[in-house]
Amino acid sequence: MTAEWYETAFDKLYPILYAHRNEAEATAALETYEVFLQEGQPVLDLASGSGRYLNILVAKGYPAVGVDLSHFLLRTSLEVFDLGGRVAQGDMRRIPFVTGAFGSVINMFTSFGYFSVDTDNLLVFEEVHRILKEGGVFLFDFINAEKISRDLLDHTHREANGYNIDERRTIENRGKYLVKRAVVTNVETGDRKEIVERLRLYTRRDLFTMLDSVRMEVSEIFGDYAANPFVDGVSDRVVLVARKK
Ligand SMILES: C[S@@+](CC[C@H](N)C(=O)[O-])C[C@H]1O[C@@H](n2cnc3c(N)ncnc32)[C@H](O)[C@@H]1O
Fold first, then answer.
1. Which of 47, 183, 208, 237 could join 111 via S-S bond, C-beta 3.0 to 4.6 A?
2. Residue in 185, 153, 140 with CA at minimum distance from that of residue 166
3. Going by CA atoms, what residue is nearest to atom 26 of ligand 1?
4. What is the distance in A from the centroid of ligand 1 to the CA of 232?
5. Number of domains making up the chain
6. Coil vs helix vs strand at 79
């Protein structure tokens, strides 16, 4: 059986492809959005990746933990940051924590929409609802699908940290998926690897409907990491604050 794209994409080359998604960005975003987290309550960083958000939460004294599927990124997060082992390996469709364990859940930088059937993506929101306490908060940061579809950069090329990165993007299945194929070449050795990402392009309206269907009420929406208002088709991000009903 061939592996799903999200089982292979988040490995050694991920930090090279996304070097610009760094700790400074996470620090700025949390400075803006920490105000919505439940004070002193446990926080889950769902899809914690290399730990850039989790590290800040732990340093601020939250009883925070991270869950991620990628062994490589989990190991990196433990090596780079002093997380006290506060990570668990798991799939976001079956979050390995008990019902009502968290005051807040964060899901940052497009860590959603990875599954090829909509019911699996919805299952992630159902799981978030399950593991939150009554009134618990979900901070959710997704790509603005309408903007991406309108202003698609179909081909980009850059050099970073000794690698040539050639990225081609297509919108497939009548606007439903963004598929990115990156060819990463080590300039010195010539080694090449292709990394494919396939993201379900849920619009702001789709996300509201999905969250409502799992009894999560959206109370705030912003368009970037500085809490600027969300503008359809213009904002880079869809940042939602939702509460468990
Ligand atoms: C775009 S990265 C974002 C990581 C982190 N939130 C950040 O902002 O740096 C997406 C993350 O989702 C994780 N992931 C992919 N599929 C997953 C799954 N089925 N369950 C849990 N995590 C998954 C990847 O390993 C990766 O760390």
1. 47
2. 185
3. 49
4. 25
5. 2
6. helix
pTM score, whole prediction: 0.97
Residue nearest ligand 1's atom 17 by CA: 69
**How far, in Å, CA of 136 to CA of 51, rounded?**
22
- For 25, the domain range is 5-144+203-244
Is there a single domain that holds both residue 61 and residue 140? Answer: yes
Cα 121 to the chain's mean position, in Å?
13
User: Cβ of 60: how many Cβ atoms within 10 Å?
Assistant: 12
Query: pLDDT tens digits, residue range 132-170?
Result: 999 999 999 999 999 999 999 999 999 999 999 999 999
- Residue-wise DSSP of 97-154: S-TT-EEEEEE-SS----SSSHHHHHHHHHHHHHHEEEEEEEEEEEE-HHHHHHT---
Nearest to residue 107, comparing CAs of 45, 64, 49?
Answer: 45
- Specify the DSSP class assigned to residue 174: T
